[in-house]
Write a structure and sequence with these properties.
Its main location: membrane. It contains 20 helices and 8 strands. The chain is mostly helical and about 650 residues long. The protein has 3 domains: about 270 residues, Rhodopsin 7-helix transmembrane proteins (Rhopdopsin 7-helix transmembrane proteins, Up-down Bundle); about 40 residues; about 270 residues, Rhopdopsin 7-helix transmembrane proteins, CATH 1.20.1070. The longest helix has about 40 residues.
């Protein structure tokens, strides 16, 4: 084979070796986690249930992704001459199975949530009574995505990219195919999964035909645990897995953004067995049983009179769990040491000028963090403020927290003297620029959704949050994903240019005046104009009392709606004053310029004031703060009432 002229030695390029090293370390940790999980699964029959077959199918796809990575790593590491035909087949297999397995996970989790919904609504074991349907679902989920990838290759709808020394990749050839792929591989399964999760949550409290209160409580507790497990696991999976599938049609896997998406995906694979074990009581019981057996075995061998040589052998065997933990820390230290030893890295630090501009922002963010923590403590402590009707305000405050977390992470990143590889620094730079604009854009549409819901509540006089839950969920999805999708498109087609001055913040600036105007229209003028429009409509409907003849009800209704309007008006006015300069100046000024720094200061002042304004304008929060104050006064009074005897002073 080595004498044939049509063969070639395949190996990693120098640049790819630098990018793949952290992925290799993550995959080694993921393999250890999955092996421990599979050992628990084989040893204890209590976790071998039919009701968990979708979870195990999902774990198998994780193992296949890890196996694919290690096989391809060895394939490019082993210096052997590969014929051209075999090389092309391996390249197509590498590209197809990566996309196929990730798409497979999406539909497996959809099937899991559908089965749990049927279990909660109809109250029967769908895995035992509908085995034929389960088998058909398996066949459809496993074969249809694979056939679709083959069809796309045969009809030339995807193009194979095979850079020397890099990863093979399949990219759609047009924007239409990119959108179709995203619809069928992401939006349809994700939206359906969220719908079935909400339907399951809605049916938890259904107790038709059950009269015994104990059975009702046990049933609700069991189903509530099922929904909670699905929601937490699905949220973690969605956060870490979404970038890989959202970016696949637009970015090559060998690019900086593609590498970041792959790192997030392999982190998700590493966390999957931990999340399943932590959320399922059966796995927690098996881990507890394993721990008890290890402790009994250790006590038995320590109490028996064994010679010194045998006791040393026993201690070595009893330290297997400790060895695994030390292996984790060794891997982390190995990754950090190798990343620091690479030649293609640099130490990213704040410049003297940037340090002066960022110092006031740091003080404002520390104050904002304290205020937000006090607000969330009140939210956790008092159930009266945990209402469905305040979900948009809480989503807005979560975006505030994300902006604060972003600031502190980037501050530590430029303060910590560590050598960062160029590709990793570029990925962090893109994330820094994109998420600043994305989160600020997100807030404008969240407040628009809040004002629309309040208008519907005032005009039609019904609780939109309980009667239109599906529409609310769809609005959440559109608000969270459409702006992010827009920023990715703008970066992909070079409509924005990345500014990365040494020792300063990264920023994305539109390349032309039409793109700046389009950005302002969609990020500022449309949401602000619509929000003001719905506020004026609410003002018009406040005095509408058609069909109500009792004066007390009319007065109470007017007072309640007027209070809602005042809250929205005051909060929205202060938000526009402090937030508008940042959005209006972003397309025209670099954020570290004098004007840009002033806009950032106003933006972070707005973040600091947000919880204070919400707590001051909402009566429920005022009552919660008053209750906290009363408790503190009573505690202080009781402390002062205790007199210390003179002989102890």
């Amino acid at each position: 084979m080595n004498n044939e002229t049509s063969c070639k030695i395949i190996h990693w390029s120098h640049q790819t070796i630098g990018t793949i090293r952290p992925i290799l370390c993550i995959c080694l940790l993921a393999t250890v986690n999955h092996l421990i999980f599979q050992i628990q699964l084989k040893v204890f029959p209590t976790v071998q249930k039919r009701s968990m077959l979708w979870v195990y199918a999902y774990i198998v796809t994780d193992l296949l992704l890890l196996l694919r990575f290690f096989l391809l790593y060895i394939y490019r590491w082993w210096p052997r001459c590969i014929p051209h035909v075999v090389r092309m087949l391996i390249c197509y297999g590498e590209a197809v199975f990566d996309n196929y397995l990730n798409q497979l996970q999406c539909y497996i989790l959809l099937a899991l949530n559908i089965c749990r919904y049927l279990q909660i609504v109809h109250g029967h074991n769908v895995y035992a009574s509908n085995r034929l349907i389960i088998m058909i679902a398996y066949c459809l989920i496993y074969f249809l995505p694979f056939i679709s990838h083959i069809v796309m290759i045969v009809f030339g709808w995807t193009l194979l990219q095979n850079p020397p020394g890099g990863f093979c990749n399949l990219l759609p050839i047009s924007l239409v195919i990119c959108v179709v792929f995203l619809v069928f591989s992401y939006f349809i399964p994700v939206c359906l999964t969220l719908i079935f999760l909400l339907l399951s949550l809605h049916h938890i409290h259904q107790t038709d035909g059950i009269h015994a209160q104990e059975i009702v409580d046990a049933r609700q507790k069991y189903y509530r645990r099922l929904v909670l497990q699905s929601a937490i696991f699905y949220t973690i999976w969605l956060v870490l897995w979404s970038p890989n599938l959202l970016l696949f049609p637009f970015y090559c896997k060998n690019g900086r953004i593609g590498n970041l998406a792959k790192i997030l995906r392999y982190i998700n694979i590493t966390l999957d067995p931990i999340a399943i074990s932590a959320l399922d009581r059966r796995f927690l019981q098996t881990w507890q049983l394993t721990g008890n057996q290890c402790r009994r075995w250790l006590r038995r061998h320590q109490s028996s009179p064994v010679p010194v040589i045998l006791s040393t052998h026993t201690i070595e065997h009893s330290l297997t769990i400790v060895d695994i933990v030390s292996h984790y820390f060794f891997m982390i230290e190995y990754c950090t040491r190798n990343m620091n030893k690479t030649n293609d890295c640099e130490v990213v630090r704040w410049s003297t000028q940037a340090m002066k501009t960022v110092q006031p922002l740091l003080y404002i963010c520390i104050l904002a963090t304290i205020i937000h923590l006090l607000f969330w403590i009140q939210l956790i402590a008092y159930p009266t403020v945990r209402q469905w009707s305040m979900q948009w305000l809480y989503a807005y405050l979560v975006s505030d927290l994300l902006l604060l977390i972003r600031f502190f992470l980037l501050y530590v990143y430029r303060w910590w003297p560590i050598c960062v590889p160029y590709f990793l620094h570029s990925m962090i730079c893109y994330c820094e620029a994109i998420f600043d604009n994305y989160l600020n854009l997100l807030q404008s549409y969240i407040l628009l959704a809040l004002n629309i819901c309040r208008y519907l509540q005032i005009a039609h006089n019904y609780n939109v949050y309980s009667t239109n839950r599906c529409s609310i969920v769809m609005a959440h999805l559109l608000i969270y994903f459409c702006p992010l999708f827009g920023h990715i498109i703008a970066a992909k087609y070079k409509w924005t240019v990345l500014q990365n001055p040494p020792g300063d913040a990264c920023d994305l600036i539109p390349v032309s005046l039409p793109i700046r105007i389009i950005f302002l229209v969609f990020s500022y003028f449309i949401p602000v104009a619509l929000a003001l429009f719905f506020l004026f409509l609410c003002l018009n409907y406040v005095r509408n009392t058609d069909g109500i003849r009792t004066q007390e009800i009319v007065d109470a209704r007017l007072k309640y709606h007027r209070q809602i309007l005042i809250q929205s008006g005051v909060f929205y006015s202060l938000w526009i004053v402090f937030w508008s300069p940042h959005i209006l100046l972003f397309p025209f000024f670099y954020k570290s310029s004098t004007v840009g720094v002033m806009a950032q200061i106003l933006n972070y002042i707005s973040i600091t004031l947000d919880p204070i304004i919400i707590a001051a304008l909402d009566r429920r929060f005022l009552q919660a703060w008053q209750s906290t104050g009363d408790r503190l006064k009573r505690s202080f009074s009781q402390y002062q009432a205790v007199r210390i005897p003179n002989d102890q002073r």
